[in-house]
Write a structure and sequence with these properties.
Layout lengths: L1 E8 L3 H12 L4 E5 L6 H6 L1 H20 L15 H25 L3 E4 L1 E4 L4 E5 L4 E10 L3 E3 L12 E2 L1 H4 L8 E5 L3 H12 L3 E5 L11 H13 L3 E3 L3 E8 L2 E7 L5 E6 L1 E4 L3 E3 L6 H4 L22 E3 L10 H15 L13 E3 L4 E6 L2 H6 L4 E7 L4 H6 L5 E7 L5 E8 L2 H13 L4 H5 L10 H6 L1
Parallel strand pairs: 1-2, 1-6, 2-3, 6-17, 8-15, 9-10, 9-15, 10-11
Antiparallel strand pairs: 4-5, 5-6, 7-16, 12-13, 13-14, 18-19, 19-22, 20-21, 21-22
Helix pairs in contact: 1-9, 3-4, 3-6
The structure holds flavin-adenine dinucleotide and nicotinamide-adenine-dinucleotide.
Length: 455
């Protein structure tokens, strides 16, 4: 039986980053992954494929709707070749997951393909291609998450689908109904809306992206309505029934009336749940909380001293970069260092167009906490660069402490905000005041000027 200093179970952005950092810090490391490709949800069926389809569908929309404004005439009809689009997405995924194979070899990490389960606190059984058993002094659980469902919905994965199937459809839906106006519903809803599907978003809360600053939800809702999405807020889905090629949703509105919606596809995107199936946590005595997350302390250590857990399977935002930070954090802790993560400064990004991005506290959170603040907002349409490019929607909103001027939250929606948010994170990491940002030179003409102006 092979012995390791560290074994990592799961090869998503939490697991593979943890393994690399452990190896860099001199620990003999193994990683166990049940699928044949590394990279987890993010690389295989999450961040990367969804961004590939968002990029392709964005090009199509530009060509069909906006090229003309720029004086570009395309003779003949512009058509979507969905098979090719999905094929390109898969090529991007394959190249990216192949990159992780390379990184494992480069960093001298042993990769085991198979389902890992605990035999006790230091032994892991592997079932699958590389069946066997390994021993490790320290174990990091990075088994991620799977789509959640509502108890009354049967996911047939053909017409009633999760994000995984929505990334590889064989046809453009005529009418895609999306249950849940969160990140997945809006990103994948936008992909198919751009490709020509009618899209209805059915959300339980009174606004889309309910955990983000309300000003962002309002602006994105406006843009989506302009793009002729059907937005049904404050609707509680009661049943989803498939009949042949048709799916019927019944939902209750605010007045208590039952509303029916029919379509040919229903995407269920109501969140994700931590994934621990098959891990046999009981054999090691690792405890979970009532949300099904692995319980950890401030060092991301479980109740068993030598077992740690990171990423989607523990508390906190289910984001790839949060999982990565935690991977590095645990590796450095195991090496005797004293790392730190500022969870308040993990940015959140929605890759729709306009892009939505935020870091720090929302206006609602500041109000609830009774913190006195001032707000500065600047619209992109007032910038020369936005007018030159033709992307006018959105704004940057900065919230700062009323007395100290320290920036407490930055919320933005508009072109390139996914990248612009990095400036906000740097500013807040160094505890900038709004005045600090406003006194820094921002290149002209850029979208980043909205940061300076809002500050
Ligand atoms: P995962 O990536 O879920 O990886 C866990 C791995 O563990 C999997 O490969 C699984 O097969 C393996 N595993 C589980 N159990 C075992 C076992 N017993 N033995 C062996 N292997 C096991 N986040 C962002 O930050 N930005 C985005 O743009 C973004 N887009 C997304 C789009 C979609 C459609 C989805 C679904 C998610 C998206 N996310 C995004 C979220 C992101 O994918 C997750 O937060 C991230 O992948 C979590 O990383 P992780 O390492 O914790 O787990
Ligand atoms: P989410 O939590 O973002 O959104 C779920 C939405 O469904 C919420 O708005 C919620 O109010 C709504 N909802 C819940 N129950 C409902 C019901 N019964 N009827 C109608 N609406 C209901 O979850 P998601 O979109 O499924 O994404 C899952 C996770 O994946 C998220 O935590 C997210 O962080 C991650 N993700 C991130 C990105 C990104 O960073 N760009 C992209 C995709 C996914």
């Amino acid at each position: 039986m092979k012995s390791y200093d560290v074994a990592v179970i799961g090869s998503g952005p939490g697991g593979y980053v943890a393994a690399i950092r452990c190896s860099q810090l001199g620990m003999k490391t193994a990683i166990i992954e049940k699928y044949s490709t590394l990279g987890g949800t993010c690389l295989n069926v999450g961040c990367i494929p969804s961004k590939a389809l968002l990029a392709s569908s964005h090009h199509y929309e530009e060509a069909t709707k906006h090229f003309e404004d720029h004086g570009i005439d395309i003779p003949g009809e512009i058509k979507v070749n969905l098979e090719k689009m999905i094929g390109r997405k898969q090529a991007v995924v394959d190249q990216t997951t192949g990159g992780i194979d390379f990184l494992m070899k480069k960093n001298d990490i042993d990769v085991y393909e198979g389902l890992g389960s605990f035999k006790d606190t230091t032994h892991i059984k592997i079932e699958g291609k590389d069946a066997g058993e390994i021993e490790a002094k320290q174990i990091i659980i990075a088994t991620g998450s799977k789509p959640s469902n509502l108890p009354f919905i049967t996911l047939d994965k053909e017409r009633v689908i999760t994000s995984t199937e929505a990334l590889k459809l064989k046809e453009i839906p005529k009418h895609m109904m999306v249950i849940g106006g969160g990140v997945i519903g809006l990103e994948l809803g936008q992909v198919y809306r751009r490709l020509g599907a009618e899209v209805t978003v059915i959300e339980y809360m009174d606004r889309i992206l309910p955990t983000m600053d309300a000003a962002l939800s309002k602006e994105l809702n406006k843009v989506f309505k302009k793009a002729k999405f059907n937005m049904m807020m404050s609707h509680k889905v009661q049943s989803v029934e498939r009949k042949g090629d048709e799916v019927l949703i019944k939902a209750e509105n605010k007045k208590g009336e039952t509303v029916e919606v029919k379509g040919d596809y229903c995407l269920v995107s109501v969140g994700r749940r931590p994934y621990t199936d098959g891990l046999n946590l009981e054999a090691a005595g690792v405890k979970m909380n009532d949300k099904g997350q692995i319980e950890t302390n401030a060092h991301l250590q479980t109740n068993v001293n030598n077992i740690y857990a990171i990423g989607d399977v523990v508390k906190g935002a289910m984001l790839a970069h949060k999982a990565e930070e935690e991977g590095v954090f645990v590796a450095e802790t195991l090496a005797g260092q004293k790392p730190h993560i500022n969870y308040n400064l993990i940015p959140g990004v929605v890759y729709t167009w306009p892009e939505v991005a935020a870091v720090g506290k929302t206006e609602e959170e500041l109000k609830d906490a009774g913190i006195e603040y001032k707000a500065g907002q600047f619209p992109f349409r007032a910038l020369g660069r936005a007018r030159a490019g033709g992307d006018l929607d959105g704004f940057v909103k900065i919230l700062a402490d009323k007395t100290t001027d320290e920036v407490l939250g930055i919320h933005m929606i508009g072109a390139r905000c996914a990248d612009l948010i990095a400036e906000a994170v740097v500013a807040m990491e160094y505890r900038a005041s709004a005045e600090d940002i406003s006194r820094m030179s921002h290149a002209h003409p850029t979208y980043a000027e909205a940061m300076k102006e809002a500050a």
